[in-house]
Design goal:
The structure is a homodimer of 339-residue chains.
Chain A: H1 2-20, H2 26-32, H3 39-51, E1 55-56, E2 65-66, H4 68-78, H5 86-97, H6 102-117, E3 120-124, E4 133-142, E5 145-152, E6 157-163, H7 170-184, H8 192-195, H9 197-201, H10 208-223, E7 230-233, H11 236-242, H12 249-256, H13 259-266, E8 275-279, E9 291-300, E10 303-313, H14 318-338
Antiparallel strand pairs in A: 1-2, 3-7, 3-10, 4-5, 5-6, 8-9, 9-10
Helix pairs in contact in A: 1-3, 1-4, 2-3, 5-6, 5-14, 6-14
Chain A binds a DNA duplex (30 and 30 nucleotides) through residues 2, 23, 25-28, 37-41, 43-44, 46-47, 57-64.
Chain lengths: 339, 339
DNA sequence: ACTTGGCACTCGCTCGTGGTGAGTGCCAAA
DNA sequence: TTTGGCACTCACCACGAGCGAGTGCCAAGT
């Protein structure tokens, strides 16, 4: 009962601070929210909340501001995920649906996410390790050069050039191609190691070197981690929020230019809800102490393949942003399934 | 003689302002540069320069600041292009030389350029208009969906998904594929329009719709211009410079997020020197009125293929930046030739 | 045991004020 | 044409007073 009100107060503080970006005082609180008690009571609660570390005052005689811990509690206990409106969902689906290829899906996603959250958006490319081989093509570029094109069911295409020790004729290539296809198509790429084992051995002796070169290249291409690519968009939103924190924006921009950093931001364990929130100092990255990162995993079929998310100030609209990130992840999954 | 000194004064003002970012007064000028005359004389010159529109004062009783016109004169008449040191050149060559593919070259270039100029760097992908079709693959994804993979002799791969009105069987697809290959392989992509004309007509009636869909997609994919891609890096440098102009950074970031804008920044006529400088309002882009853009074209063989450059505040180090942009363009050309 | 009104206190913020100094334009002399 | 002198402008800064939002504490009320 008493505890309940305290939490209500914390929620109110977070909501007010998020919308005004100014420290919130006891009087303003009772005015804006119908808490049914007097400011003095609220003050007592606030003192308690401060003792527990959920809120803090920037300086004496100022209102309270949520701490990272306060936001954490807010996210974990006090708020849900705000679903998007039907119109928004329809717009998302249409926008993503008209993408022509994987690159296009990724680019559209990052733009979309930045636009609807009005924050910096990150999108990681789907990992191929979970995918299966859809098709392999061997093309003779010159007598001693073969290009291998690998097409995954995710729509991703990898290309490699293989140098042969001697000339290779078309029919041999066609033979290799046919047997290679039967060896790997449809198999999860993680398993290709096994299924491809017999391929070299079953090749005619004179093609052994080429066959093993092809296998080596194939394995290399498959372990090429496309999911180490992260694209970002909406950095202009940083400047908007940066008006109040002109100092903070440079380190953030710097951090966001490092692929490694982006990967660390996205690549952590999944929460059960499907949306992961990392607040302020919880971030494993220097320079992002005053930002929060909200990520969700997206999938293809029922396999989780990669993450996407947004980076914004700790005083962000968590329910709305979480809803948007969740919805976009969901729709990206759907689009990938369709293809 | 008299005219000479005025220009020397203008040069001194630009140099001082660029290094201090503060309006420069007559007294400071004579102290820092050995002009051999008194402050009063300089004041007369400054008044004249102001009348001619080369400099301006932010407010009465402040020093002078170069106008866009002043910078223009400085660049055109008063400064050269500062060459890089041998060590820097060597570092550039090594850094770019270890790139593994085209994407890698582009990414390394944009990083390099941002780093050595300490500004926002832009790099446009090289245009590949003279490429020919090496191979086309049609893959059935589902009964009514076909993926087309287009491989150009440059190693570029394009993929498209085509929706069919009815189910398509494998043998029909194989037939289409074979005839498509003979129609287009080896032809310059610019000519495919012609050679592909008979393809639809020669198809069996029941495949006509699919055939024409394939042709349409093919033409679309071929005219997909890779050189419409521009990547950028070093946006963090904006923030550094933005400390003094916190308001200006948001529109700049916004403008830089638009591919169309980036293309307009890069895609203009070449100057004879090889380096183009566009100062302040000379930029054809809204929001970049207080920035300058320095670009250079790079080439492959003796064909100019695309541009790269940097965006920075109008009060930038023109000679140094021009030198860096020029050198990087030169080395990118060299790297592309080697491949 | 909470809640509440009252009250004294803190302290950041704003605004006006005056002083300072860099910088200018003009003018008369060299 | 250059130069020193001089009066003038005005941004900038430091200082101080007043304001007011907000707090903590306490004693009284429910």
């Amino acid at each position: 009962m008493l505890e309940d009100r305290r939490l209500a107060v914390l929620r109110a503080i977070v909501e007010d601070y998020v919308s005004t970006h100014e420290p919130v005082g006891s009087k303003a609180l009772v005015e804006r929210h119908s808490l049914g008690v007097s400011p003095a009571t609220i003050r007592n609660d606030m003192a308690a909340l401060e003792d527990e570390g959920y809120i803090a005052q920037p300086h004496t005689s100022a209102g309270r501001v949520p701490t990272d811990l306060g936001y954490r509690h807010f996210v974990d206990r006090l708020s849900g995920v705000k679903p998007l409106s039907a119109a928004e969902r329809r717009a998302i689906h249409e926008f993503l649906g008209s993408a022509v290829d994987l690159d296009d899906v990724m680019i559209r996603t990052v733009r979309l996410l930045a636009q609807i959250t009005r924050q910096v958006a990150l999108v990681q490319y789907p990992s191929l390790t979970e995918s299966t081989v859809r098709h392999i093509e061997l093309i003779s570029l010159s007598p001693t050069r073969v290009m291998m094109v690998l097409i995954a069911n995710t729509g991703r295409v990898e290309q490699r050039v293989i140098e042969c020790s001697g000339p290779v004729d078309e029919s041999a290539l066609a033979d290799l191609r046919a047997r290679l296809l039967s060896a790997v198509v449809g198999h999860p790429s993680a398993r290709v190691d096994d299924t491809v084992a017999g391929f070299t051995d079953s090749s005619p002796p004179e093609l052994r070197p080429l066959a093993s070169a092809i296998v080596a290249t194939l394995l290399d291409a498959m372990t090429e981690r496309i999911d180490e690519r992260v694209i970002l968009g909406g950095t202009a939103h940083l400047a908007r929020y940066g008006e109040a924190f002109p100092l903070a924006i440079q380190p953030v921009l710097e951090a966001l230019e490092e692929q490694v950093v982006l990967l660390r931001l996205l690549g952590e364990e999944t929460m059960s809800t499907g949306v992961t929130v990392r607040i302020g100092h919880e971030n494993p990255v220097e320079g992002l102490e005053s930002t929060s990162v909200i990520t969700a995993r997206y999938s293809r079929g029922n396999k989780t393949v990669a993450s996407l998310g947004v980076v914004g100030p700790t005083h962000m609209d968590y329910p709305g942003t979480m809803g948007a990130v969740h919805a976009v992840a969901q729709y990206v999954s759907r689009i990938l399934d369709e293809q």
